[in-house]
Write a structure and sequence with these properties.
Largest sheet: 4 strands, antiparallel
Strand content: 15-25%
Shape: elongated
CATH architecture of the domain at 27-65: Single Sheet
Number of helices: 3
Protein name: RNA polymerase-binding protein RbpA
CATH class of the domain at 27-65: Mainly Beta
Order of helices and strands: HEEEEHH
Mean pLDDT: 85
Function: Binds to RNA polymerase (RNAP), stimulating transcription from principal, but not alternative sigma factor promoters.
Subunit structure: Forms a complex with the RNAP catalytic core and with free principal sigma factors.
Strand order of the largest sheet: 2-1-4-3
Distance between the termini: 112 Å
Structural class: alpha+beta
Number of strands: 4
CATH topology of the domain at 27-65: Rubrerythrin, domain 2
Family: Belongs to the RNA polymerase-binding protein RbpA family.
Keywords: Transcription, Transcription regulation
Helix content: 25-40%
Radius of gyration: 34 Å
């Protein structure tokens, strides 16, 4: 008889524990607003650290905390140009010498071609 009562009850996939004698945790509700104008509320635990930005649930943009401080901008390294990389390998004086040598070679080609 005991085996028949468990048949079809999805044992293991459904919790039979009740919420009796348990107190829900205290919550705080925080408002965010995205650049598109969507405003929404997100619940957090009362003792949780609230982030400055949250992904908008309507369009996925980065929404900012209403009444909060501006998030700190991320440090962005400026892109390295070819000139920057060249200056890491050679000094300006070396580059001037190489330029003078190449100009001489080009001038020599012109005189021979004429």
């Amino acid at each position: 008889m005991g085996e028949r009562s468990l048949r079809g009850s999805r044992l293991g996939s459904v919790s039979y524990e009740t919420e009796r004698n348990t107190a829900p945790i205290e919550r705080q509700y925080v408002e965010y607003k995205c650049p598109s104008g969507h405003q929404f509320t997100v619940p957090f635990a009362d003792d949780a650290e609230v982030p400055d930005t949250w992904e908008c649930k309507f369009d996925g943009a980065a929404a900012k905390l209403v009444g909060g401080a501006e998030p700190a901008p991320k440090k962005v390294k400026p892109p390295r140009t070819h000139w920057d990389m060249l200056l890491e390998r050679r000094s300006v004086e070396d580059l001037e010498e190489v330029l003078a040598e190449r100009l001489e070679v080009l001038r020599g080609r012109r005189t021979r071609a004429s």
